[in-house]
TrEMBL record:
<dbReference type="InterPro" id="IPR019801">
    <property type="entry name" value="Glyco_hydro_35_CS"/>
</dbReference>
<dbReference type="GO" id="GO:0004565">
    <property type="term" value="F:beta-galactosidase activity"/>
</dbReference>
<feature type="domain" description="Beta-galactosidase 1-like first all-beta">
    <location>
        <begin position="411"/>
        <end position="524"/>
    </location>
</feature>
<keyword id="KW-0732">Signal</keyword>
<dbReference type="Pfam" id="PF21317">
    <property type="entry name" value="BetaGal_ABD_1"/>
</dbReference>
<dbReference type="Pfam" id="PF01301">
    <property type="entry name" value="Glyco_hydro_35"/>
</dbReference>
<comment type="similarity">
    <text>Belongs to the glycosyl hydrolase 35 family.</text>
</comment>
<dbReference type="InterPro" id="IPR026283">
    <property type="entry name" value="B-gal_1-like"/>
</dbReference>
<protein>
    <recommendedName>
        <fullName>Beta-galactosidase</fullName>
        <ecNumber>3.2.1.23</ecNumber>
    </recommendedName>
</protein>
<dbReference type="InterPro" id="IPR031330">
    <property type="entry name" value="Gly_Hdrlase_35_cat"/>
</dbReference>
<feature type="domain" description="Glycoside hydrolase 35 catalytic">
    <location>
        <begin position="45"/>
        <end position="365"/>
    </location>
</feature>
<dbReference type="InterPro" id="IPR017853">
    <property type="entry name" value="GH"/>
</dbReference>
<feature type="signal peptide">
    <location>
        <begin position="1"/>
        <end position="24"/>
    </location>
</feature>
<keyword id="KW-0378">Hydrolase</keyword>
<dbReference type="InterPro" id="IPR001944">
    <property type="entry name" value="Glycoside_Hdrlase_35"/>
</dbReference>
<dbReference type="InterPro" id="IPR048913">
    <property type="entry name" value="BetaGal_gal-bd"/>
</dbReference>
<dbReference type="InterPro" id="IPR008979">
    <property type="entry name" value="Galactose-bd-like_sf"/>
</dbReference>
Length: 639
């Protein structure tokens, strides 16, 4: 009888202990060392200090978010019931022209971002690449890697790539290392590369192993990967002892496949999508309905997950990437827009969407409601009354010194160390009847002139259509000047087509089948310094121009600059490149943080590539919201 009672007592105590653990508050960063390991049944659980732990992460990219708003965005994640911040780091956003790395200035100070996460009691999941995708220019890789025409990326086959990626990793590892869990920091987990199984070189497991060995030698771990859910994506890149992230984990089938290919490790959703990316000419941002089914499933089954993206931010400057896919046997290029709103629960300017509160309700059903703080107050926005810009000078006046010598075939931007911006290519063509001009690569947008007369505007997005790489040059009574303006947009950031996405006019250019030689090249990188110093010059009757205006403010707040009365170009405010605009939508307004503006005089400069007439811009309190599945129409942007 006593033995039976003792067993019951032990059972009761065990149940009470389990209940106590289950109801106990989740552990939070406290400045003390902790451990994060894999364990439990078959090693398939994440363990924080030996106890099962569910990662509920939200992806935020500090390099896309004004530094002064980092804490606000992290607080929004905490208030939604998340416990971890996941983040990419973009190599080409840190490396400077001289090869040094800046991890301190502005929104490059990722160590400070991670410290703020810890202060807000949020864990951190780092994804340092070196390749990350993220719809960022060349997936975060520096374009100088494409200078060699035979360059290969993301492979041990290319010694130059391996040299530079190791140089980057050795620079960034010491930034993260003091913030690891074992030192009292908040970093739980480190991802190796990104979606390597979706790359056509996906079976090079030696490269993935090299990355694991590198990070292990630096004292990091544990590790995870991120890939698609099929056997094709996972086989060959799964590493023993490395957790499997699926993009996304949303079914028992995907879970079973991952467990079969890489058993004995946790499987989680490394990217659960609340929306999707947008490219120029597509519809507006629409939140995903699918995640409203997936999120409750993940929570109910205690699967760890990361919402990609929780808050997207902005592709300031020339940081937006692009996509390319085969279409009718040709590359269909789709450049990304400046906004990275993504239909995320926290919008580009930090506004909390209706979906934010829906996701919060889902999460509150599975965690202690008392732990959730209230959502932080919104960041103020303001209107700026319409004002008219004035024509300053032709676009040509922004040119840098021409490249020395002439070229048999046009050189691509990367060969003369330019990333994006523009260049003007010139060559002489003989007198003759109307003739057919054909080109090899025209990346990505621009104009073709003969003796100053516009022949055609080229848009690489249309190259997959018939006869897009050929045009008729009119009759010339004498030797003429062929002048081609090329604007580069974002490098492709996904798939092995990255390796061939060089910018500018390059490869043979033919006139009636005969090569045009003797090319001169004038770079126009559209750098902030040159644009800011542009001086008045007469209109040359060519497309586009530099436009400028000054305006005064009594107060500053976030705003969205409405560019819908201009056509295509780049917007600069007080010497800050806010990114590209294009009236084909879906984005008609560019986000301008309060930190860019000044109480008193402000200067706005527009480099416009199409129209030559000045027009108005204004500041709005929100982005344009129309939801159109096909082409965006300017339905709620009425002046």
């Amino acid at each position: 009888m006593m033995v039976h009672f003792s067993r019951l007592l032990r059972l009761a105590l065990s149940i009470a202990c389990f209940a106590s653990l289950a109801s106990a508050a989740e552990p939070k960063p406290d400045g003390q060392p902790h451990s994060f390991t894999f364990g439990g049944p078959n090693g398939e659980q994440f363990l924080l200090d030996g106890q099962p732990f569910q990662i509920r992460a939200g992806e935020i990219h500090p390099q896309r978010v004004p530094r002064e708003y980092w804490r606000h965005r992290i607080q929004c994640a905490k208030a939604m019931g998340l416990n971890t911040i996941s983040l990419y780091t973009f190599w080409n956003g840190f490396e400077q022209p001289d090869g040094s790395f800046d991890f301190k200035t502005g929104n490059r100070d990722i160590a400070e971002f991670i410290r703020i996460c810890a202060e807000e009691e949020m864990w951190v999941f780092i994804r340092p690449g070196p390749y990350v995708c993220g719809e960022w220019d060349l997936g975060g890789l520096p374009p100088y890697l494409l200078k060699d025409p035979d360059a290969k990326l993301r492979t041990m086959e290319d010694a130059n790539f391996m040299h530079h990626q190791e140089r980057y990793l050795r620079a960034i590892a010491p930034i993260f290392e003091p913030l690891l869990l074992k030192h009292g920091g908040p970093i739980l987990l480190t991802q190796l590369e990104n979606e390597y199984g979706s790359y056509d070189r996906k079976h090079e497991s030696a490269y993935m192993q090299w990355l694991k060995d590198f990070w292990t030698e630096q004292g990091f771990g544990p590790f995870s990967t991120a890939d698609g859910t099929t056997e094709e994506h996972l086989r060959g890149v799964a590493l023993p002892g490395v957790a499997t992230g699926l993009d996304p984990l949303n079914s028992d089938k995907g879970l079973a496949t991952a467990k079969r290919i890489n058993p004995g490790v946790p499987v989680f959703s490394s990217e659960s999508y609340p929306g999707w990316l947008r490219r120029w000419g597509e519809g507006n941002w629409a939140p995903s309905k699918r995640i409203k089914r997936e999120l409750p499933w993940l929570l109910k089954n205690n699967h760890s997950f990361s919402i990609f993206v929780f808050h997207g931010g902005t592709n300031f400057g020339f940081t937006a990437g692009g996509n390319g896919k085969a279409n009718k046997g040709a590359d269909h290029y789709m450049p990304g827009i400046t906004s990275y709103d993504f239909g995320a629960p926290v919008g580009e300017q930090g506004v909390l969407t209706p979906e934010y509160y829906e996701y919060r309700e889902f999460i509150m059903k599975y965690i202690d409601n008392d732990e959730l703080p209230p959502a932080p107050a919104p960041i103020p926005t303001m209107e700026i009354a319409p004002f008219t810009l004035e024509y300053v000078a032709p676009v040509k006046t922004l040119s840098h010194p021409s490249l020395k010598g002439s070229f048999e075939t046009p050189p691509y931007f990367e060969s003369f160390d330019q990333n994006q911006g523009m260049a003007i290519y010139r060559a002489k063509i003989p007198a003759g009847e109307a003739a057919e001009l054909t080109y090899t690569f025209f990346h990505d947008y621009g104009h073709v002139f003969v003796d100053g007369e516009l022949v055609r505007t080229v848009d690489r997005r249309d190259e997959y259509k018939d006869d897009q790489k050929r045009m008729m040059i009119p009759t010339r009574s004498q030797e003429s000047t062929l002048e081609i303006w090329v604007e580069a947009m974002g490098h492709i950031n996904f798939s092995i087509t990255m390796e061939s996405d060089r910018k500018g006019l390059y490869g043979p250019v033919l006139l009636d089948g005969k090569p045009i030689t003797g090319w001169e090249v004038t770079p126009i990188p559209l750098d902030v310094t040159t644009v800011s110093k542009a001086k008045a010059s007469p209109n040359d009757n060519m497309p586009g121009g530099i436009f400028r205006a000054e305006f005064k403010l009594d107060q500053v707040a976030d705003t969205f600059i409405d560019m819908s009365k201009f056509t295509k170009g780049t917007l600069y405010v007080n010497g800050v490149n806010l990114g590209r605009y294009w009236n084909i939508g879906p984005q008609l307004r560019l986000y301008c943080p309060a930190s860019v503006l000044r109480k008193a005089n402000n200067t706005v400069t527009v480099v416009e590539l199409v129209q030559s007439n000045a027009d108005q811009i204004r500041g709005c309190t929100e982005r344009n919201y129309e939801f159109i599945n096909e082409k965006t129409k300017n339905t709620n942007n009425v002046w």
